[in-house]
Amino acid sequence: MTAAAPWTLHPDRALPADPVLRPIAREVFAHTEHLPIVAMHGHVEASLIADDEPFADPAALLVVPDHYLVRMLVSQGVPHDALGVPRRDGGPVQADPREIWRTFASHWHLFRGTPTRYWMEHVLVEVLGVQERPSAGSADRLYDAIAARLAEPASRPRALFERFGIEVLSTTDAADASLEAHARLAADGWGEKVVPTFRPDAVVHVDRPGWRADITALEERSGVSIGGYRDLVRALEVRRAAFVAAGARASDHGHLSADTTPLSDSEADRVVVAALRGEVDAADAAAFSAHMLFETARMASQDGLVMQLHTGVLRDHDRAVHAVRGPDVGYDVPVATDYTRALRPLLEAFGHHPGLRMVLFTVDEDVFSRELAPIAGVYPAVRLGAPWWFLDTPDGMRRFREAVTDTAGFFNTTGFVDDTRAYCSIPARHDLARRIDAGYLARLVAEHRLDLDEAVETAVDLALNLPRESYAPPPR
Asked: 423 with 400, same domain?
C-alpha cells in the first residue's frame, strides 16, 4: 500500500480562481508575502513574550483559548467541559490535553469553508510541520508530533516572533494593568517590539458587574482617589500617560453602541456618584458610556494615542454560560449599528482636529458603504479598520474592499489587524489578508483601472506602510 503524500498547502490558496486574475494576483502577492507584520491590535499577553517559556501542550496552545474554534464545536453539541474551558467556580473539566486534542481532531470536518480552517491549516503545516490532516485516526500522531515540536527552543515565543517576521505586536491591557511584563520586555530590548494598548472598558461602563472593584484597582494604580466624574477622568489621564511612557500607540474601546453624545460635567458627575453608591440604572450607564467616548476623543487629541472603536457586539449573549464560564467563550453576537448619527457629536467636535487619529471597526457590514466609507472619506481624523471578528473571512475581506474603496479609497484604511489570542495564527491571518488584497487589486489591473506597478505599490501600502503610519507612536 502506497503511503499517503505529506499534507501541503496550495501556493495559490485564497487567490482568485479566474485564470486571467490569478497570475496577476500571484505577481502582486509576491511583493507582500514576506513583508514584516505590523500587528497593532491583538490579545496575546505580554507575559507570554516576556516569560518566553515553552508552550505547555497542543491543546493549551491551539484549542482551549481559541473562541472561534470553541464556538463551532459547541454549536455541534460538544460541551465546554470536554474542551477544557475553565469554569469560574473551579469545577472539574477535561484536564487531559490529549483527550481535548482528540475531540478537536475528530471534529475537523466542521471547519470546512471557515477562516478557522484556513488559519489552523497554516499553523499546523507552516508553523508546526504537521504532515497529515487532523482526524480521529491521526489525532495521537499529530499530538505527539506537535508536542515534540513545541519542546524545541525554536518554538518558544520569542523565537517564533522573529520567525513570523513580526515588526511590532500590540497587546491589549486594562486601565489598571501594572505593565510589568512590558517593563521586562523593555529591559530586554524588546520595548519597541511589544507595546501595550490602553483599554478602559471596565471602568467606563458603570453598570458592569465588578465595576466598583475595578474602580478601586484604578485608584490604587493611578494614585487618584475617585469620588466623582472629574476624579475618574484624572485617573484615566494618569494611566494614559503611563501607557504612553511604556510605548503604547493606541487605546481600544469596546462599546455596544457608537453613541458619542456628551453630557455636562454635572450630569456626568451625578452618574458616577450614583454608580459609586450602587444605584445607577441602565439608561444612565449607557449615556455615560457614550459621553466617555466623546471624552476619550478629547484625551486622544491631546496625548496622541490612536482611538480604536469597536462597536455593535452584544457580549455574553447567553447569561447562564457567562455565569459559569465568564467572557470570551464564543457567546458574543453582532447587532445592527448606527454610526452616522451616533458619531456626529464627536466628529463635529474633533473630526478635523490635527491631534486625533480614530479607527472605526464594525461587524455590521451593511454600514461599510452606507456610513463608514463616507465618514472616513471626508473626516481627516478617521480611518477604517480592517474587517473584524465575524468578517475577517476571505469573502468578508473582499466585500469590504468592494464596499469602501469607491468612497474612501485605500488610504483612508489602516491595513490589517489580526485581533487574536491565538499567537501562532498571527502570520496565517496576515497571509490571508494579503492574498485577498492581491486578488482585489488584480481585478482592478485586469479591468485597466490600475496599472500593475500601482497595484504592487498599493498592496505594499496595505500590508505594511498604512499600519505603520496609522499607528505611528504618539508625539513625545
From this structure: yes
CATH assignment of the domain containing 140: 1.10.2020.10
Domain with 114 in it: 54-155
- Assigned domain for 363 exists: yes
pLDDT single digits (tens) 126-182 = 999 999 999 999 999 999 999 999 999 999 999 999 999 999 999 999 999 999 999
| CATH number for the domain harbouring residue 300 | 3.20.20.140
Q: Is residue 326 part of a domain?
A: yes
- What is d(CA 164, CA 196) in angstroms, rounded to the nearest whole number? 20
Same domain? 362 vs 310: yes
Q: Are residues 306 and 285 in the same domain?
A: yes
- Each residue's pLDDT tens digit, 253-310: 999 999 999 999 999 999 999 999 999 999 999 999 999 999 999 999 999 999 999 9
Structural domain count, the chain: 2
pLDDT band at 2 (very low <50, low <70, confident <90, very high): low
Tens-place pLDDT, residues 56-65: 999 999 999 9
**What local confidence, expressed as pLDDT, does residue 3 receive?**
59
- Indicate the pTM of the whole model: 0.95
Q: Are both 43 and 136 inside the same structural domain?
A: no
